[in-house]
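Summary of Year 1 activities. Much of the first year was spent building the evaluation harness for sequence design. The harness presents a backbone, in tokenized form, and records the residue chosen at every position. We chose the following record to illustrate the format because it has been used consistently in internal testing since the harness was completed.
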């Protein structure tokens, strides 16, 4: 999940940059999100990402342009902004799930936290 978190964070950096929303959306999706398989994402965001992918591949490309460029070219600025907001929402869900994951500290057999020996204060 960390790699997807990092890829969505990189996409958000592009979306938050300068330039027209359509240009930023194309760059964010093609450079960071386009090759993510939604089956690799947590269940909570599979459908949202599948819907985003569908939006980004709606239009048949012309003269060597990518399906993403063709689809975004046909979007209104409001539609492009909605797709960008969808990226933000998916990133937010990834962030929430990432924060819910325990730190991975070692546990003893009785499932109580174990203090490493070097941290135990001797008397």
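For this record, the design step produced the sequence shown next.
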């Amino acid at each position: 999940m960390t790699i997807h978190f990092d890829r969505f964070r990189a996409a958000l950096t592009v979306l938050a940059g300068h330039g027209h929303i359509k240009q930023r959306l194309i760059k964010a999706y093609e450079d960071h999100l386009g090759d993510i398989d939604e089956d690799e994402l947590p269940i909570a965001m599979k459908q949202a990402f599948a819907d985003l992918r569908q939006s980004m591949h709606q239009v048949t490309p012309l003269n060597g342009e990518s399906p993403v460029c063709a689809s975004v070219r046909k979007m209104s600025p409001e539609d492009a902004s909605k797709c960008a907001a969808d990226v933000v929402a998916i990133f937010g869900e990834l962030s929430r799930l990432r924060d819910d994951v325990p730190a991975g500290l070692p546990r003893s057999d009785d499932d109580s936290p174990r203090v490493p020996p070097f941290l135990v204060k001797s008397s």
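The helical segments are 2-15, 21-33, 43-56, 67-74, 77-100. Quantitative recovery figures across the full test set are reported in Table 2.
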